[in-house]
Amino acid sequence: MDVFEVEIEGFSGPLELLCSLLESGELDASLINAREIVSAYWQFLHKSGRTSLDAIAEFLILAAHLLLSKAKALIPPVSDAVIEEEEENTLPPTESLLPYRIAVDLLAKKFAERQRFFNRPPEEGSPVFEVGDVYLLSAMWWGLYAEKNRLACRVEDKEGWEGIPMPIPEEEQVEKRIAEVCSILKEKRRLFLGDLLAGRRSRSYLVVTLLALLELCRLGRISLSQEGRWSDVAIALR
Amino acid sequence: MWPSPCDDERRNLTRKIEALLFMSPQPVSTRELASFLGFPLGEVESALEGLTEHYAADHGLSLLRSAGGWQMTTAPDLCEVVGGFQVNAERLRLSRAALECLAIIAYNQPVTRPEIEEIRGVRSDRVIDTLLRCGLIKSAGRKKEAGAPILYRTTDLFLDLFGLNSIGDLPPLSEYDSGIEVGELDEKLS
After folding, report:
1. Using CB atoms within 10 A of its CB, is residue A153 exposed (0-12), middle (13-18) or buried (19+)?
2. What's the CA angle centered on A194, arms A190 and A200, to 5 degrees?
3. Cβ–Cβ of A87/B90 closer than 8 Å?
4. Are B143 and B10 in contact (CB under 8 A)?
């Protein structure tokens, strides 16, 4: 079986080894183009025909390792951070908060006691990724993305990876479908829901089409009718 | 008198446990040690008790029970000298806001952000994000209700940093209402 080899500046070898070197800090993750490597690996799997569940799972695990290492390298470490006095509660405590205020004193005492014991620091990077890590990774990513947009930087590379469609927000999909339905109706004036779904049997496509029709109906641009309970839905331009 | 083979075996078990705990950066459970070393749980527990007593007697190291396991640490009375030696190792400091959030999560887990904010009476998203980044809490799925908010729970790192063996080590919330002092609560815990 073919083995995927990464060829980048300063490294040539299997992806597993690259991930391991990034996690151990022997390679600087901030200098790695994660998108390029993940994209190349996906294409390798696609071409080799290894589309089993195991291959997809392996791909997701390696991509997650790579992205988490990259995210960690880009964001300042928090291990020695001070949690700032943010959202400090200066209001008088409610009855429900009172017991927790006392619990805070106990926790502070236990924390101070534990700080008197020093132990070997944990190694950088965890070999195990939990759902929380993925959430954290997503939160970091969207935070960076929002910051980038706030600075009015141009968002590059909107075309997506080869072979993988870019995720499109639901409202954009509906808007796109509204435009498609209007264009078909301009030619035919009247058609059926079945015509709109011809050849497309995915659930998401049906949902987006129904949302588009309901929106057009709400705007008074089309009328919807049905002769019987299970008959096809007729769509007519108003 | 020569030591019996049984004594040698026991001494070797203690040495092996000592070596494993010395190497591990996080607490190791008794079960994990027993399973890895291939000894019955009872023998491992007995060896750990012996090791704890050994280190309690005038040593620079100490054996700490934390986060459901055992961890080798420096002796608490040496904290100043060790802290002074580790000049660059700035340790985590927690604000009262962070401790308040942690207390609410610890006692109500799994709990959502709106539930935390309802108890605190203030927005808590930034504190929660920071606690997540520090690994003191983690997400534990989503609650099946409108908006499907994320549920949070404390991590083993939280237990370790607060010297707790398990969440059950915390006194029941009702005890805080009885006017008991924190010192008394802590004594009851230990």
Report:
1. exposed
2. 125
3. no
4. no
Q: Tens of pLDDT along A165-221?
A: 455 556 677 888 888 888 888 888 888 888 888 776 667 778 888 888 888 888 888
CB contact under 8 A, B173 and A117: no
B130, A105: Cβ pair inside 8 Å? no
| Average pLDDT estimate for B12-40 | 92
Are B121 and A97 a contacting pair at CB < 8 A?
A: yes
- Percent of chain A whose pLDDT exceeds 90: 0
Specify the amino acid at residue B76: P
| pLDDT range class, residue A77, cuts 50, 70, 90 | low
Which among A129, A179, A167, A36 has a CA at the least distance from the CA of B138?
A129
Nearest CA in chain A to B98: A83
> Could you give the CA distance from residue A68 to residue B157 in angstroms, rounded to a whole number?
19
CB pair distance less than 8 Å for B72 and A120? yes
Most confidently predicted of A5-19, A138-152, B59-73: B59-73
| Residues of chain B contacting residue A131, judged by C-beta atoms under 8 Å apart | 138-141
Chain B residues with CB inside 8 Å of A106's CB?
170-171, 182, 185-186
Burial classification of residue B70, based on how many CB atoms lie within 10 Å of its CB (0-12 exposed, 13-18 middle, 19 or more buried):
buried
* Most confident among A95-109, A141-155, B103-117, B169-183 (mean pLDDT): B103-117
- How is residue B87 written in tokens? 């000049």
Q: Residue A147: its chain B contacts at CB < 8 A? A: none
Which one of B74, B79, B177 has the shortest CB-CB distance to A99?
Answer: B177
- Quote the CA–CA distance of A32 and A177 in Å, as a whole number: 38
Residues A163 and A46 sit within 8 Å (Cβ to Cβ):
yes
Query: What is the pTM for the complete model shown?
Result: 0.54
- The yes-or-no verdict on residue A160 having pLDDT over 50 is no
